[in-house]
Amino acid sequence: MQWLIERFKEAPDKTAFIHEGRHVSYGQVVEKVNNFEKNFLELGVEQGHTVVLVGDYSPEVFCAILALALCGGIVIPLTTNSVIEESTVLEISGYDWYVKFDHNGEAFISDNRGVKSGNQLLEEFIQKKSPGLVLFSSGSTGKPKGILHDFVRIAEKFRAKRPPVIAIPFLMIDHFGGINTILAITSGLGTVVTVSDRSVAKICEAISKYKVELLPATPSFLNLLIASKMYENFDLSSLKRITYGTEVMPQSTLDRMHQTFPQVKLLQTYGLSEVGVLHSQSRGDGSTWVRVGGDGFQTRVVDGILWIKSSYAMIGYLNAPSDFDEDGWFNTHDQVEVDGDYFRILGRETDLINIGGQKVYPAEIESVILELDNIEDVAIFGEKHALLGQIVVAKVLLKSTESVESVKKRIRAACIAKLNSFKVPSKVILVDSQLHNVRQKKNS
C-alpha cells in the first residue's frame, strides 16, 4: 500500500477532500496517515489484528483505513446507519480493536481488546501477513455474509494512474462500491467531496457548490432526482459523468435521465463485493446494454446466468460456502440477455417472480409504472399464491394524494398496453415513505 502514499506525496498542495466545507490537501492526508499509523502501533495494533472502524466518509476515516492497512491490520468498516446490525458483524468477524469516529473526525479507540471469532478463514489469512478488508452483504436474502478481501489485491487495480476528477463517493464506506470509488478518486489525485446527508437536495447542493464532475449513484436515487425536479434549483452544469449500478436500471428512468441531462455521459457500472467492480462500456447513453470486463476479469454466461473470473476476487466468505467453482469462476446469480459482446442485466434469480411458471422481472414492470403521472417511485415484488405460486404486487409512492382504486386502474391500463397479462400487478399498495434503504437501493 506504500505506493499509494508515495503518489499522494507527488501533489502535496492539491485538494484531496472537501469535507463539511473543510479542505484537506494530499500533503495533510499523508501526515494524517503517518500519525494514525504511529498511534495504532503505540497502542499495540499488530499485523493480523481485526479492527472495527465505525464512521462515514471523512479524511480521517480514510486515513485511518490506510494506516491500518500499513500496519497489516484487517479493517472492518461500518457506518452508524449501516443496514447490517453491528452485533451481527461482531459475532461473525470478531474484533481486536474498536474505533469510532465522531462528526469532527476525532477517533475514539476502545481499550477493550474485543473478542476473537475463531474463524478459520481469518486465521489462515492472517498467516499470509497481508492487510485485509471485511465487508458485509446486506442480508436481503438471508443472514449477512462476511466477505474477506486482501486489501493489497483491491488497491492494486488502481496502481495505473487515472485522470483526476472531482467526485462524490455516493455509496457508503461499508459497501464495496464505496471503497472502490474512494480509491479510484484518490489514486488519480482527484478531489473527494463528502456529503453526510445523501438526500437529493444535499447532493445537488454539493454538486453546484464544489463543481462536482462525477456522480456515482443508484437507479433509485436517480429516479428520485428526476421525480423531485430538484435539479432545477441548482447549477449542475459541472457534471460530466453519472454512473449507476447496484440494481437494475428501469428503461424509463434512463430515458428521462438522458432527456434531462443531455450533456452528461451516463454509464452503467457492474460489480459485486465478491469479485470487484468491472470496467464497463454502455452501448449508448440511452441503452441498458453494457459490455463488462477489462484487465483482470473474464466473463461467461451459463444457462442465462453471468459468471465472472476475477484477479481481484475475495478470499472467501467468513460464514458461508463459496460461490466460486473449482476453476475460480463466480456465480453472480444475475440473469442476463446476451447480444454479441453486450449484456443486459435482468435481475437476480432471487428477485424473479414466478407466475404459474412464467418468469417476471421486477424492473420491466417498474419501468412502465414510472412513466405514469403522479408516481414518484415503485417497487415490484412477488407474493405467494396458492394456485399460481406467486402474484405481482406493486408498492407505490405517490407525489400527491390519490385513491388506491384510481392508481390501480391507471397502472393496470398502462401495463396491459405494454406487457403480457401475467405481468400486470394483482395488488397495489400505497406507501408514505421512501422505497429505498440508506444505501439507496430499492426495498420491497
Which descriptors would you attach to this protein?
444 residues, alpha/beta, Rossmann fold, GMP Synthetase, Chain A, domain 3, 7-stranded mixed sheet
Structural class estimated from helices and strands: alpha/beta
How many angstroms does the end-to-end distance come to? 40 Å
Radius of gyration: 22 Å
State the helical fraction: 25-40%
State the total count of DSSP E strands: 28
Poorly predicted segments: none
Q: Please, what is the CATH homologous superfamily of the domain at 2-155? A: ANL, N-terminal domain
CATH architecture of the domain at 2-155: 3-Layer(aba) Sandwich
Number of helices: 12
Q: Report strand %.
A: 25-35%
Order of adjacent strands in the largest pleated sheet:
7-6-3-4-9-10-21
Main beta-sheet annotation: 7 strands, mixed
Which CATH class of the domain at 2-155 is shown?
Answer: Alpha Beta
Mean pLDDT: 89
CATH topology of the domain at 2-155: Rossmann fold
Morphology:
globular
In words, what does this structure look like?
The protein is α/β, with parallel strands linked by helices. 28% of the residues lie in helices and 31% in strands. It contains 12 helices and 28 strands. The strands form 7 sheets. Strands 7-6-3-4-9-10-21 form a 7-stranded mixed sheet, sandwiched between helices. Helix 9 (219-228) links the parallel strand 13 and strand 14. The protein is globular. The chain starts with a helix and ends in a 13-residue tail after the last strand. The model has no long low-confidence stretch (mean pLDDT 89). It comes from Polynucleobacter hirudinilacicola. Keywords: Ligase. One of its GO terms (biological process) is fatty acid metabolic process.
